[in-house]
What does this fold into?
Amino acid sequence: MKGLHNFIDKKLKPNFTEGGKLSKFWVVFDALETFAFTPGHVTKSGAHIRDGIDLKRTMFMVILALVPCLLFGTWNAGHQYYASIGQEADLWAKLGVGALKVLPLVVVSYGVGLGIEFVFAGIRKHSINEGFLVSGMLIPLIMPVDVPLWMVAIATAFAVIIGKEVFGGTGMNILNIALTSRAFLFFAYPKQMSGEIWIHDVAANKTAGLLVDGHTGATALGHLANTVGKAADSAEVKGIMAQFEPGGMFSFENSFLGLIPGSIGETSTLACLIGAAILLFTGIGSWRIMLSFLIGGLTMGWLFNLAGANAFMGVSPLHQVVMGGFMFGLVFMATDPVTAAQTATGKLIYGFFGGFLSIMIRVFNGAYPEGVMMAVLFMNVMAPLIDHYVIQANINRRMKRSALQTA
Amino acid sequence: MSEVQEAIVEKKSEPLFSKKNRKLISDPLNDSNPITVQVLGICSALAITVQVQQAVIMSLSVLFVLIGGNIIISLMRNGIPDRIRIIVQLVIVAALVIIVNEVLKAFLPDISEKLSVFVGLIITNCIIMGRLEAFALANKPGPSFLDAIGNGLGYAWILLAVSVVREIFGSGAISFPGMGQVKFLPEGWFIGNGGFYENNNMMILPPMALVVVGVIIWIQRSRNTKLIESH
It folds into this structure.
């Protein structure tokens, strides 16, 4: 290790520093060097308490928390494929099919995103920072399995340039980068982002007649959206709702474990909860946001239960929150420290309305089954306003208190 | 003293295309572009830039109203009482817009239908009222005419740039008045026909026009450092 360090410091570094042959690529060298070794900078004056946790470590923890979702999502992509055509397959076959679909997405997302970051860092003469490490992993996890790679590339480029670099780079963005790319795809290519896309090759297999009887390839929320506007006691609605009973395809257990079709990383509530545990244990994710987001979702689900105007509203609140991207959005999207509210009270309000709106949008608007995406983006926009009023309220309270004491 | 001198200089008849007057045309194209710098007339720029043909017709309409309005107001500038000048301006602009609207309805009915209310809304276009207030009321017809052309073209080139981007990526086509819309991408490229390509639906939605205008402003500011505010 020491020899390697010496080699990098003595032999490689001079090439990249000011005046060296490759000084143009200093930002790239710097980024890769600090990735491997702790930077050697020390404070020059006075004493500062320094913590070992910097942006790179933070980002790495989130990546670690994403690993369960990634692994499960890869397996599930294969599992859903074999289940849709009614074949038995072992663990490795399923992982293999999944990896063939998921790995290219990861590579494209990182390649495009980091490429743009490098170019901007070069132009602005900034050092490359780690802002894209997490976004680059989140983007593939919220994509459908069969989304064309060039679309992912365009969406990533849009999210990084318009969503982040325009505002000044990492830490300056208003909207969550990964969700921006998802929203871009959703509105730009609606045909490729809804319908029969959640399982590998399901559309082709359907036309070829290879699908298992009764399998439509739709997600849980897609099925539920189909019930809206139809009589609750009609045969069609009853058939759909039967799948949500214990033993059905979208039963609570299946939805909780994630054995259902959906975006790659979002299906398994269990994997999301493992990620949440890692984020909470390391203190990176905010428990306030996670808890209030969950309460918000459950509250809206309960209110819908009371209204009960259609079969979708009748789904139990607990079942609502384990379907779709709710849990994934709760753990990884809403807690994004850049775009979330910053004050403690603000986080509670932000989270509650995020969860509340997620369930509301998915039930009221069948065209937007992923209400979580809309809700989190909307609350991203609202977060500064929430913070403003929380801070103002605090100032007013203290003003009043001091006025009372002096009087 | 200097003001008096300027006033005297003003009295002397100036050639129409003097250096100062040429600036009236070139300025609005870049340094004081009505859309990207003054941020006026944005609504129509977002709403009707889905296709190039609409953008062309809209630009010509605005150019016509702007030239007509500027010249008429400039001719009447000494007779208009200050208190009712806005009403007078509105009457003149409204009359010109109605002429444009009727002409479009008569000769280009399908484009007129696509532009819908936005031709009528030229009346409220801030660029026109802005130029009448800021320029025509205080200048002779000659310079007012040039000012109108400059601002009309400044508006037009942004509309054209936005609409070209939106139509190429949003519809895979390009259109021009009298030519109709030409789809130049082979049908076999599209996913529905077994290909790989798909038009970007977001380009057809107005929010993307805002992003495109934003990108144009970004590029313009990075090239023209005069526009960057000091902080």
About this structure: Residues 371-406 of chain A form the longest helix (36 residues). The mean pLDDT of chain A is 85.
